[in-house]
Automatic annotation (TrEMBL):
Belongs to the acetolactate synthase small subunit family. Its EC number is 2.2.1.6. GO terms for molecular function: acetolactate synthase activity; acetolactate synthase regulator activity. The lineage of its organism: Bacteria, Thermotogati, Deinococcota, Deinococci, Deinococcales. The keyword Transferase applies. Pathway: Amino-acid biosynthesis; L-isoleucine biosynthesis; L-isoleucine from 2-oxobutanoate: step 1/4; Amino-acid biosynthesis; L-valine biosynthesis; L-valine from pyruvate: step 1/4. Residues 18-92 form the ACT domain. This is Acetolactate synthase small subunit. The keyword Metal-binding does not apply. It comes from Deinococcus cellulosilyticus (strain DSM 18568 / NBRC 106333 / KACC 11606 / 5516J-15). InterPro entries: Acetalactate_synth_ssu, Acetolactate_synth/TF_NikR_C, Acetolactate_synth_ssu_C, ACT-like_dom_sf, ACT_dom, AHAS_ACT, AHAS_small-like_ACT.
Amino acid sequence: MSANLYGDTPSSPTKDHIISVIVRDEPRVLTRITSMFARRGFNIKSLSVGTTENPGVSRMTIVVGGDDNILQQAIRQLEKLIDVIKVIDHREEKFVDRELVLVKVTITPETRVEVRHIAEDFRARIVDVGRYALMFEVTGDEGKITAFIEQMRPFGIIETMRTGRVALSRGSNADIPTQVYTDGGSKSLEPVLGDVEI
């Protein structure tokens, strides 16, 4: 049985996929990309956008929910967009991903010390101190962020804000800037711009 557009058939396990999209930093690029996902029924779990080392170029990290077929469809559709320079499928490479969360937790005189000790275990940083609440900043992979939130939940979470995941492939080609990659090379480490005009 083939998967439908949403990848929710029993034979098609749904999971999260991380892709990076290198785009021209132009007005309405984000709107065009999110509109494409919406039209196709792809589920964006998180989306983070920021500038890159190249002026006029931005990097998006998109977490897409669905099976492998959904991911391939999403990549093909992204590659058709005029403002997209390159799409990186992080399944093909080892990568580092991180997420940041701000968590505001209720405290009392009785729980203040325990909350701070748990935060220290997660290397969380206190960014705001109030009489009845502490705000923490935590950076790490998705598992660490989720575990920290669950540890704080019994004390009373007032608010949270997660940035969404960002990712870069491991390794570097910076020491060989003129390297020309062959079929055996790392696709994600190829020069991002090449001959593309910005």
